[in-house]
Design brief:
The chain has 116 residues and is α+β, with helices and mostly antiparallel strands. The protein has two helices and eight strands. It has an eight-stranded mixed β-sheet with strand order 2-3-4-1-5-8-7-6, covered by helices on one side.
């Protein structure tokens, strides 16, 4: 089962976005890594989702994407394509996880994460 584990806000001015969300909502932003600022949105003892603010790539300049954790990213990507999704970014490998981006048949952007 896929569970939403985070979000990504994309902006062409991520520093300004980080400042805005920090000042208005009290989010804490980590030091950026690859033009991506991890953000903590509140106390861990209270329900909520953390995420990140990123410099929007050319295929998703502005907007919000949810991040869904999956057990088998290749299988989910295949199922998504069979059901009308467009793959924006094929599976990418990072130190502890794999990541891919797709757009569902209605135009909603989604990130898929499989932890190693």
């Amino acid at each position: 089962m896929g569970r939403v584990i985070g979000f990504e806000l994309n902006s062409q001015d991520p520093e300004k976005a980080v400042a805005f969300y920090s000042k208005v909502f009290g989010w804490e932003a980590a030091t950026p890594h690859w033009d991506y600022w991890e953000v903590t949105t509140g106390n861990k003892s209270i329900k909520g989702v953390n995420g990140g603010i990123a410099k929007g790539p050319s295929d998703f300049l502005h907007g919000t994407r949810i991040q869904i954790e999956v057990d088998a990213i290749d299988d989910v990507m295949e199922q998504a394509k069979e059901n009308g999704a467009t793959i924006l970014r094929d599976k990418m490998e990072f130190d502890n996880f794999y990541l891919a981006y797709l757009v569902d048949p209605t135009g909603i952007g989604v990130g898929l994460i499989q932890y190693k």
